[in-house]
Amino acid sequence: MNYQFTIVVPVYNEEDNLLRVEKELLAYTKIATKTTKVLFVNDGSKDNSQALIETICDRNDAFDYILFKDNRGLSAAIKAGFDYTQTELVGYIDSDLQTAPEDFNLLLEHIGEYDLVTGVRANRKDSFVKNMSSKIANGIRRAFTKDGMDDTGCPLKVIKTDYAKRIPMFKGLHRFLPSMILLQNGKIKQIPVQHFPRVAGEAKFGLWNRLLGPLLDCFAYLWMKKKYINYDVAKTK
Fold first, then answer.
1. What topology is assigned to 5-227 in CATH?
2. Tens digits of per-residue pLDDT, 11-51?
3. Which residue range or ranges hold the Glycosyltransferase 2-like domain (predicted)?
4. Please, are residues 121 and 195 in contact by the beta-carbon 8 Å criterion?
5. Helix, strand, coil percent content, the chain, rounded in steps of 5
């Protein structure tokens, strides 16, 4: 099959969610506006996630996986997904399925004109502490990056793959994906999407990860913005 769109699904100890992920993403592939495949990136899970992933991939031709030797973090899992994607478009969704795969179609409507389209979680179904820490972190990040994005932590994005592969990822930079597209002189857009409570597994980020960690990452982004190299090739032989 000539696939056009790859959905990257980072996984870390999500054995209770994976069969639901299979069901929801398989259903999405049947209604997707682009021919779609799924790429699990197992970030060194310690539970039964890998066995489930292999079973899922064995029975679904459109599902593949990458297994890390060790736990390397969400940014590394996303980078690996981008690196191994061979389709013209790449997307990203969390394996907790707090966002809906069918909303990828909303983002895909705009990807022709834009280089990254990200979801904005409407009516978030998280705890008060999680919502407030996320809101504060997004405000701090916007002040540093001037990217105009309201919810860069939303785990539902579509990116043109050539832009995604040029993102110089480091730990924590998954929160700055729109900003990194802007560094490449790309165009970005945000679209409201659905949000649901987590029904299985455990959240992997605490207050430090949501608030203090991103503040430190802002300084790393500013350094990278100052040093970032762009070039356009006029001619080759």
1. Spore Coat Polysaccharide Biosynthesis Protein SpsA; Chain A (3.90.550)
2. 999 999 999 999 999 999 999 999 999 999 999 999 999 99
3. 6-137
4. yes
5. 40, 15, 40
